[in-house]
């Protein structure tokens, strides 16, 4: 019966392509919008993802997410270093600063201050220069996206392209001279603001002086000790909050999910794609089934049971769902590849593909249900009428 079902499906070319296009539209909307949503959420934890060395992030207990900085006192660093199971602990300054370029242009930037001796938490990939160059006088490292966009020098002639920031250029941070000693490659941040690295001691001079300057403490668990266990020890010994890297990512993402309209907006878009795809596919599949009732009636008259006929419809539905899913996925992936160097957030993990495939199959099966009743109630004698 499977070959017969497929022949019936492929023979009606116009309706076959109509059904596949409906499924393709739904699949494309689900995968495209889902990929953008996941891409945006991944940017909210870009700073955490770029710092792959520390296992644990220690902070004030009231911190809700990565940008919610509540400074600690310097003695907290030494208290954490004294906790059993801590291999090393490094200070991290994270804050905002305003950069003034040579042409007088101002730009808000993310400033990250790394421990002077170890430079723990430095940029993941260096495009130009070395991380060690941060120890040079007034040295800073700028991410390549910021260097080529917001921190680029304005063109002198109208219509000309901006000149990217390069190694050796200077800028002012809080009226202090800063020299670019390297260009790094980072994940775009949620606000897409430039990221500037420098040493911890220099970062505290680049921003207005406060009583508390320590934003986070980066910790590495000792070999053989689980990071989660070290987190518990730190919290009991110091009263500070300690999270593993994945826990802090989850905490940050949860904050944006609960306190912004991002999930609602993307959820509505995905729901519309699901609904429109179901309506179009359902209508086309119902029309296809009605046009082929005489063939189903013939098979019934020849002794085929309702179960076998329903199996044929489900095979047809599964076939168009896989074809439509593949086309929709291909279109989304192609569009994502074309925009990979743009400001658009796009990330397509395998988990999204599983969800999208399941949703596509549900759409097609729901559409098939609209047609099953006509087949079940069909009288075989209809093929002999007229």
Protein topology:
Elements lengths: L1 H10 L1 H32 L1 H5 L5 E4 L14 H8 L4 E15 L5 E9 L10 E4 L10 E5 H5 L21 E4 L2 E10 L9 E5 H7 L9 E6 L5 H12 L2 E4 H15 L2 H30 L1 H9 L4 H33 L11 H27 L10
Parallel strand pairs: 3-8, 5-7
Antiparallel strand pairs: 1-9, 1-10, 2-3, 2-6, 2-9, 4-7, 5-8, 6-7
Tag the structure with descriptive keywords.
single chain; 386 residues; alpha+beta; six-stranded mixed β-barrel; 50% helix; elongated
Describe this structure in words.
The chain is α+β, with helices and mostly antiparallel strands and 386 residues long. It is built from twelve helices and ten strands. It folds into two domains: 2-43 and 261-384, no CATH class; 73-239, no CATH class. The protein has a six-stranded mixed barrel. The two termini are 27 Å apart.
The arrangement of helices and strands along the chain is: HHHEHEEEEHEEEHEHEHHHHH
Main β-sheet, in a few words?
Answer: 6 strands, mixed, barrel
Class by helix and strand content?
alpha+beta
Q: Looking across the biggest beta sheet, what order are the strands in?
A: 2-3-8-5-7-6
Shape: elongated
**Share of helix, binned:** 40-55%
Strand fraction band?
A: 15-25%
What's the helix count? Answer: 12
Poorly predicted runs are none
User: What's the structural domain tally?
Assistant: 2
Cα distance, first to last residue? 27 Å
The gyration radius over C-alpha positions equals: 29 Å
Tell me the total number of β-strands. Answer: 10
Q: For the residues shown, what is the average pLDDT?
A: 87
